[in-house]
Amino acid sequence: MRGTSRDAGKAEALTASGLQGQIADPDRVGTVLDEIADVTLVFWLMGTATGEGDSVAAIHGPRLERFMEEIVDTPVRGVVYETGGSVPRDVLRRGEQVVRAAAERWRIPVSVVDADPGEVDAWLDAMTAATEGLIGAGRRG
Q1: Whether the Cβ atoms of residue 29 and residue 63 lie closer than 8 Å to each other
Q2: 3-state DSSP call for residue 97?
Q3: Least trusted range by pLDDT, from 17-26, 54-63, 88-97
Q4: What is the rounded CA–CA span in Å between residue 31 and residue 29?
Q5: For position 12, what pLDDT does the model report?
Q6: Cα(132)–Cα(135) distance, rounded to whole angstroms?
Q7: pLDDT tier at 42, thresholds 50, 70, 90
Q8: Residue 140 — φ and ψ, nearest 5°?
Q9: Partner residues linked to 41 by β-bridges
Q10: What integer best gives the mean pLDDT of the chain?
Q11: Which residues contact 136 (CB under 8 A, 6 or more apart)?
């Protein structure tokens, strides 16, 4: 499993936790796309993203739209989008609309998880259920 962060120190922490920690910036979608070779599921876990308001809104809006457009011709077969967290609700709802529109347009299976990342056990249960749902989505006839 691969995990990305804009921060080299956090990427190292991801590696220490057992993931392949990579540096990628969702504000520069190409850096994220570079990391999805051989990836089946993408988790857009930006519900607690920090930074300037316009920048955070962009990664839930136009950057996410571009990302969804670009994954059509990749091995990605599902996306989990996080709507729980500290980012303003209207920004997260916009991101949810982007993901759902892409799911309809390109038939990309998606799951939207609204669990609070601060409630670790409930968040993990919700993410696990989303993963299991998407893995099974490819087997439905």
Answers
A1: yes
A2: helix
A3: 17-26
A4: 5
A5: 85
A6: 5
A7: very high
A8: -75, 145
A9: 78
A10: 89
A11: none
CB 107 within 8 A of CB 76: no
CA-CA distance, 34 to 43, in Å (whole number)?
Answer: 15
User: For residue 96, what is the enclosing H or E element?
Assistant: helix 89-106
Residue 112, token pair as written in the block: 């939207």
State the pLDDT confidence band at 139, using cuts at 50, 70 and 90: low
Q: Which residue has the tokens 């993990």?
A: 124
Query: What pairs with residue 38 in β-bridges?
Result: none
> Token pair for residue 120?
């670790």
In this model, does residue 89 exceed pLDDT 80?
Answer: yes
Judge contact between 81 and 95, C-beta under 8 A: yes
SS3 call for 14 = helix
Residue type, position 56, single letter: V
pLDDT attached to residue 114 = 96
Q: Which distant-in-sequence residues (6+ apart) come within 8 Å of 58 by Cβ?
A: 27
Angle (nearest 5°) at CA 1 between 3 and 17:
65
The SS3 call for residue 87 is coil
